[in-house]
Amino acid sequence: MRMPEPDGAVLARRTQIAASLRALVPDVRVIDHPDELRPYECDGLTAYRQPPMLVMLPETTAQVSRILGWCQAEGVKVVPRGAGTSLSGGALPLADCVLLSLARFNRILSVDYDDRLAIVQPGVTNLAVTQAVEDRGFYYAPDPSSQIACSIGGNVAENSGGVHCLKYGLTTNNVLGVELVLMSGEIVRLGGTTLDSPGLDLLGLIVGSEGLLGVVTEVTVRILPKADAARALLIGFAAVEDAGACVAAIISHGIIPAGMEMMDRIAIHAAEAFVHAGYPLDVEALLIVELDGPEAECGFLVGEVERIARANGAVLLRTSGSEAERNLFWAGRKAAFPAVGRVSPDYYCMDGTIPRRRLPEVLSRMAALSEQYGLGVANVFHAGDGNLHPLILYDASRPGELEKAEAFGADILRLCVEVGGVLTGEHGVGVEKRDLMPEMFTALDLDQQQRMKCAFDPGQLLNPGKVFPTLHRCAELGRMHVHRGALPFPELPRF
Question: Residue 4: what pLDDT?
Fold first, then answer.
């Protein structure tokens, strides 16, 4: 994995750049000491590290606007950063960049229970939104496993999901509007406080744009009332393929659970040792299925899921008897990533999405790849929407194991595309999947996506080196072929 070559002329001006930015926004903390830059050298994809040229911590939209405008005028690259929990390298710095941390944008600005929305700053953590409204019986639906730490701004950048996204949608389905600062320093608002806005859906373009188009400084999110009843089921299977078939059967019966998650034996044992959630240790795969809604509906659906599970070979069925037990079932799943760290020195977390009906086949082929590469894999994923999170187990201290894990991961993602899926479900492309984009998109597709990037950031200064395997200059993308001195369509007026 290679990042863009640093600009020597910019690096030579490092001291001058730091001094100029301090003078431009004197109230903003500027970090440029090598020791203080270390915490920013990577994000959740810790296999790749690169300290930034300097870090800035603004607190207001006006400060962000002045910083971006100055950097564009001076040709200095900017990498936005939220909480740094990205697992795709989306916040990986460049050696010649200003890393713009939004950590101080950490306030909930307002809550409107009548219109069911909250206006928050991007540095607010995901879980903090729910905690702010739960005393009134509301919550924020997208709930990534890292919700205690990940920020709303980062969720917007990566279009994050979570265990309840099957029924309630990803970030894009729960964001009503954003305030955005463009690389030029211009401040724009997209969407708002209403269900829909007229004109082009630019808000839909920003959610999931991975910090390539602008810096989000305010987010309007939906909040939802909690369901009358919610129950979670633990369903154990003697074979991973049986669990995959059960997932497809539940959905094909027209049942949309609030969440449907799956773990294999390695992940089950790791999570149980870590959280003591009461998971069975004698099964090969475990489904956690949550049903919610009115009490009568919830009870009926629990019975239907139990019937479908038995028909698909379930060897264990257990339903939560209290809210505390339901939360404990989920606590084990949400702690699965750190728990796997107890059984392997390092792991490489993948993120791909497949059609649900191909789940048994893909799990079987991943097992074969695990044997081929000689590396273990723990499967933890959002089974309901086919979003896989295989954790490839390796030891970085052994020469060549990281490279082997990367190759294994690339083959998993190629497999996802081969069966009709996509490269990412919620972690984004970042640098991790950047060089695999041609597996899914043609050169024409990628050129069109880069043209959109050029419309927002013609200087290619905002988060460069991410998403696109080959970054063209905007002038190259807009060039027109001249044949024997003649332009195409000569009858059209040129402006």
Answer: 84
